[in-house]
Amino acid sequence: MNSEEIITVATGVVKSWDWATETSRPLPKQLDVKVKLIKELVPIIVGLRVKRLGYLAAITGIDLGPEVGEMDVLYQFCPGDVVITLRVRVPRQEAMLPSLCEIIPSAEVFERELQEMFGIQMLGLHTTEHLYLPDDWPDGVYPMRKDFDPQILSH
Amino acid sequence: MKSHQNFGQQLLKSLKDWARVSSPWVLHFNTGSCNGCDIEILATLTPRYDLERLGVKLQASPRQADILLCTGPVTRQARERLVRIYAQMPEPKYVVAIGSCAISGGVFRGCYNVMDGIDQVIPVSAYIPGCPPRPEAVIDGLVKVLASIHSPGHKIPSDILEGALDPEKVAA
Amino acid sequence: MNTKQEPQRFVIPIGPQHPALKEPGNFQFTVDGEIVTKAIVRLGYAHRGIEKAAEERTWIQDLYLIERVCGICSHIHALAYCLAVEQLAHVEAPPRAQAIRVLVAELERIHSHFLWMGVSGHEAGFDTFFMYSWRDRERVMNILEKLTGNRVNYSANVLGGVKFDLDQEQIASIRGGIDFLEERTRHYLDVVATDFMFLQRTRGIGVMSRAQAEIMGAVGPTARASNVARDVRKDAPYAAYKEYPVDIILDERGDLEARFEVRLKELFESFHLIRKILDTLPGGELTARMPRKVPAGEAVMRVEAPRGELLYFIRSNGSDKPERLKIRTPTICNLTSVVKLAIGHQLADVPMILAGIDPCFSCNDRSVQIRTSNDPDGRMLSWDELRQHGIDFYKRLEK
């Protein structure tokens, strides 16, 4: 498949699930999908996987700061030379997302990272142990959030 | 009688020093460095630079090591391991901090998960700067450590910071 | 009373300080006799918080931070970062700069593969192989030092181009080095494919099928040894790879032997590419003008590091600092596969399987100062004093 075909197929997957989902192409080889409801995320990813477009390159969390009170989570898939980005927005307080481990085993490391760095609870992920942060890291402190203050870590 | 004892002790000490200087066993521990220093340490041990011609042997276990080569800015997770490895080494022990990160935290100074240098955690006898130091610099640094073992006025570093480590706290 | 006894399980920890691992990572292998039944990985011994630190520094400061993500593949990290920032700023580096970037990237791949080859030979107990390959590796280190002035952190990239140019003498020395290394690589390929003792440690060990590699998201030579044609240089050419295409090396077997052969055969591609670049190096400028502030937006950049696909995601808010910088290293993708592959193997094979993916848990001063306790002349400077001293020193130099 060339990049145009990949984008057509991926857009088809997204639109067939919910025709009102917004898609855009910021660059010729990028497809951006705004997933409005979190429950739509898993079916869309299953759809991509079935079409063999499901090489999950990364899950990126972005904190928008306490003023906005929300966080962006970007699921980046890279089939061929195309980058498909699924965007989800979650609140900062009691953020929750479904785990993809059942569909894509390699998602586990990214999800554990989101869990400890941003404090997003991953439903269906069975471990809450730290992967990157030290064992004696205080609970409820998430270093990648914008309002993280390193002062609370006394040397 | 007493002078005989002293002579015996001195002879024993110089014999020990001779053995220590002629064949130091080094242990390498990466406390969160970028690998740059680690591959330079390995390069120092391999044929081009061949540190082994000075009798230096890379040793896997801290229990048999004389010199600890540390790289990296000491991450919070590696801190406890570093103290443990240091406590497991037999006396007298020497620590060499290799690279800018090991000296002061380097480019990672101020990051939330680093301790800014080996000497924040354990006493250090020698610092080898560079990002990363060249193999020649590593050899030079080690030779200077060995020379300092020879010098008569030398105090072993663990005396300097007495009580910095409580062996009971650290499960050996 | 519960008479049913739990079967005895032994948990063997490996790392973070371990002779086979030059980098700190901790693995816990549960074994039944000699067979591994469960594997758990714990990272974080090298977690320094670079992504957070990058948000607090300017675009130019970040370049130096990014180069120190990994000391083995520092150039490719800086390259991915520069390309992503250039994409955001709508700046394109001149063709000569792009070609030099690719040249250094391929030299770095050669150094990295030689390094890996030696270390994994060491894991297999084949120390002769280790010493020989590291001796030969010094040749490529010489080239890199001659080219960039540095053995490890080459610092070749700047935002908008590269720092140095090539002259005829350097080109000649690269050619000489490449000829030597090509001959040695042929020899090593022969060794890994025919040495009986070595084959016993590699053939049929750690087999990953194509389907497994795809579902576990393996990248780089690890994936290509399992017949997954995934190479960013080919799929989505960046820098000058459009002008200098590479062939993908694939292997169907998926075991350790295949991983050795794929990496070694890849080296021939690199040699070929380097010669081609030296033959047809475009002329012109080395840098393009970069604005100090980068326009708001998002950029995703994928490059092929020696270990596989490296992904950078950058979001800018229009200021002189990035708002978010995400680094997805190839090892994190391949690590899942190791943890799954180790199960069912003998414990003795585990270090080899681990080395098979070429794990990397992380990514000029020549004077030495010894601090002795009774040195009367010694003067200790605090960090701030040292900084002030440095500023004064260079001010004096400028006058």
Features:
heterotrimer, B: 172 residues, Rossmann fold, 6 helices, 5 strands, 40% helix, 12% strand, disordered C terminus, C: 399 residues, alpha+beta, Cytochrome-c3 Hydrogenase, chain B, 3-stranded antiparallel sheet, 9 strands
Describe this structure in words.
- The complex is a heterotrimer of chains A (155), B (172) and C (399).
- Chain A contains 3 helices and 7 strands; from the N terminus they run H-E-E-H-E-E-E-E-H-E.
- With 155 residues, chain A is α/β, with parallel strands linked by helices.
- Chain A has one domain: Beta Polymerase, domain 2 (2-Layer Sandwich), CATH 3.30.460.
- Chain A has a 5-stranded mixed β-sheet with strand order 1-2-5-4-3, covered by helices on one side. In chain A, strands 6-7 form a two-stranded parallel sheet.
- The longest helix of chain A is centred in the first third of the chain and has 15 residues.
- The relative contact order of chain A is 0.14.
- The mean pLDDT of chain A is 87.
- Chain B has a domain of 110 residues: Rossmann fold (3-Layer(aba) Sandwich).
- In chain B, 40% of the residues lie in helices and 12% in strands.
- Chain B has a 5-stranded parallel β-sheet with strand order 2-1-3-4-5.
- The radius of gyration of chain B is 17 Å and the shape is globular.
- In chain B, 53% of the residues are buried.
- Chain C is of the alpha+beta class and 399 residues long.
- The longest helix of chain C has 29 residues.
- Chain C has a domain of 277 residues: Orthogonal Bundle (Cytochrome-c3 Hydrogenase, chain B), CATH 1.10.645.
- In chain C, the strands form 3 sheets. Chain C has a 3-stranded antiparallel β-sheet with strand order 1-2-3, with no helix packed on it. Chain C has a 3-stranded antiparallel β-sheet with strand order 6-7-8.
- Chains in contact: A-B, A-C, B-C.
- Chains B and C meet through strand 1, helix 2, helix 3, strand 5 and helix 5 of B and helix 1, helix 5 and strand 9 of C.
Give the arrangement of secondary structure elements.
The complex is a heterotrimer of chains A (about 160), B (about 170) and C (about 400).
Chain A: H1 3-17, E1 22-24, E2 30-34, H2 41-50, E3 56-63, E4 70-77, E5 83-91, E6 96-98, H3 107-118, E7 121-123
Parallel strand pairs in A: 2-5, 6-7
Antiparallel strand pairs in A: 1-2, 3-4, 4-5
Chain B: H1 2-22, E1 25-30, H2 36-45, E2 57-58, E3 67-71, H3 76-88, E4 94-98, H4 100-104, E5 126-128, H5 135-150, H6 157-160
Helix pairs in contact in B: 1-5, 2-5
Chain C: E1 10-14, E2 26-32, E3 35-42, H1 50-55, H2 59-67, H3 74-89, H4 95-123, H5 127-148, E4 157-158, E5 161-162, H6 168-194, H7 196-202, H8 210-215, H9 220-224, H10 232-235, H11 256-279, E6 297-305, E7 308-316, E8 322-328, H12 330-341, H13 350-356, E9 369-370, H14 383-398
Antiparallel strand pairs in C: 1-2, 2-3, 4-5, 6-7, 7-8
